[in-house]
Amino acid sequence: MAMAMRDITGAAVVRTGKVKLDVPPLVENGNTVPMTVSVTSPMTAEDHIKSIHVFVEKNPQPNVGNFVLGPRAGRAQVSARIRLADSQKIVAIAKLSDGSFWSATADVVVTLAACTEEVI
Amino acid sequence: MASALINVPKKAKRGDVIEIKTLMSHIMETGFRHTATGELIPRDIITSFSCRYNGEEIFRADLFPAISANPFIAFFTTATESGTFEFSWIGDRGFSETASASIIVE
To answer: In this predicted complex, what is the ipTM?
Structure first.
């Protein structure tokens, strides 16, 4: 996960804050976990969110999604449904127009994991 | 086969921030699962989604196997003028789908 995050952020420092990551703390089915990432930002041409990136710790692949927005979005918020292979930590990183990175983390307990089940 | 569900407000006031919800039917096979006989099921996912508002790209997403089947994506935009939203999904095995929705801005 750290390497995948570095691909996005480069050498920049990722600070905690501004980002709000909404996921249920306990999910029964890891195949569809509703997730909402919102970032506090005025979303003007001078000061807006460029992109939102989501990573997970224990899936076979750390990337979940990269979402590119712009000042026209009006509100920096993205929702999607994701898969979780295990109880784990989720990290959302937002890239601001000034080049800084902000993040939020959430821990989720999954009772039925995604990805690993066999197909009959 | 594939079909999309799009939810865009029909009307909006100029400057309003509106939510756009999209759902595309797709299995999003992760490429990490095996059959009962132990063969790996090849990956078959949507890798990229984009939305254009009167020709200008307002939102784009790179998707990974960790996105659930039938990817649901919701995002916001500012209603600036009447026109159309064009959505496109591109994925493995030559998957390519488009959809559109129109909006009246007063």
So the answer is: 0.90
